[in-house]
């Protein structure tokens, strides 16, 4: 008799983590900040593709119907209610403002994130800073929510 664990998408986990660790372990072994070296930065950037590439690869192995369903779920914005889109777009700025307000209220220096500092200091870099941030988030989502969550939901039926 097959258990729920036998249908669990272990191959996805192996590919997603394997790809990321293939690139990140050597970066970690250098004991340097990845931003201090172009090579380390590129390796780190390549590592972030692990979850998305694994999800896309495994979906393409499943056939045409799975591919169509996967991409439809990924890009059909009608599936997301407007209130959640607004929430997603406002969450990070709201948390940043909350952190700043709490810092001021308690007499500390206002923290500033590296991304905000970089954009403020060099506004022309805005696309180069923000696009990789959203690309990483999109690829993570394609893997973890687009592939893994669906497979877990198929094998672990809520009772």
Computed Rg = 20 Å
The arrangement of helices and strands along the chain is HHHHHHH
Q: What overall geometry do the principal axes of the alpha carbons give?
A: globular
Strand pairing plus helix content: what structural class? mainly alpha
Q: If helices are DSSP runs of H or I spanning 4 or more residues, what is the number of helices?
A: 7
Report helical residue fraction: over 70%
Quick take:
Helix content is 74%, strand content 0%.
Features:
single chain, 159 residues, mainly alpha
Describe the structure.
This protein is mostly helical. It is 74% helix and 0% strand. The chain has helices at residues 10-29, 38-47, 50-62, 64-75, 82-105, 114-121, 126-155. Helix 1 (10-29) packs antiparallel against helix 2, helix 1 (10-29) packs antiparallel against helix 3 and helix 3 packs across helix 7. It is globular, with a radius of gyration of 20 Å. The mean pLDDT is 85.
Architecture blueprint of SSEs:
Blueprint (H helix, E strand, L loop, with lengths): L9 H20 L8 H10 L2 H13 L1 H12 L6 H24 L8 H8 L4 H30 L4
């Amino acid at each position: 008799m097959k258990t729920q664990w036998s249908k669990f998408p272990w191959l996805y986990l192996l590919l997603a983590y394997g790809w990321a660790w293939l690139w990140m372990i050597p970066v970690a072994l250098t004991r340097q900040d990845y931003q201090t070296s172009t090579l380390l930065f590129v390796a780190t950037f390549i590592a972030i593709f692990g979850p998305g590439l694994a999800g896309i690869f495994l979906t393409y192995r499943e056939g045409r119907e799975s591919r169509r369903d996967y991409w439809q779920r990924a890009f059909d914005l009608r599936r997301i209610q407007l209130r959640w889109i607004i929430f997603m777009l406002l969450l990070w700025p709201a948390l940043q403002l909350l952190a700043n307000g709490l810092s001021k209220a308690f007499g500390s220096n206002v923290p500033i994130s590296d991304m905000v500092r970089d954009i403020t200091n060099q506004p022309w870099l805005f696309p180069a800073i923000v696009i990789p941030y959203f690309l990483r988030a999109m690829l993570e989502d394609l893997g973890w929510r687009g592939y893994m969550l669906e497979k877990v939901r198929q094998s672990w039926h809520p009772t």
